[in-house]
Amino acid sequence: MRVEKVKQFSVFMPNKPGALSRLASLFRDKNIDILGIASEVSNESGLIRITLANDADASAILSKAGFASVETSILSVELDDQAGHLLEIADALAAGKINITTMYGTSSPDAKTARILIAVENTDRALTILEDLALGRKAGN
After folding, report:
1. Which one of 73, 104, 127, 136 is at 20 to 30 Å from 51 when CA atoms are compared?
2. What CATH number did the domain enclosing 38 receive?
3. d(Cα 98, Cα 120) in Å, to the nearest integer?
4. What is the pTM of this model?
5. What are phi and psi of 20, to 5 degrees?
6. pLDDT for 52-111, tens place per residue?
7. Which of 104, 76, 90 is nearest to 7 (CA)?
């Protein structure tokens, strides 16, 4: 398992055709890879949560293009694509009294690894807990 802190941008967008294309083109034009993306839509507006592969100044890119966004730190967890790993992560965070606020991720059927993106209430503490889990230590040891 590999755990790192990454930036997530919550981008506020209109719920209309072409809005996601406009957002995606910003990152293509700057050659920035998207690690993960999730959306929430209600009536006429939407919220896109997007995590990027490199430490580009996405906030400035979004602002310059007229998108309102909020930047937060979240955890990227890469792990072997095997049954039970999500349970181990959830149990470790629960034992450390860490509340998960948002989670999204994916894998493909033939993949050997999966990526989970996790937003929590205490990112630094959660990072320590998951690093300990990856090293086979109990949290706090």
Report:
1. 136
2. 3.30.2130.10
3. 7
4. 0.85
5. -65, -40
6. 877 668 888 999 999 999 999 999 999 888 888 899 999 999 999 999 999 998 877 788
7. 76
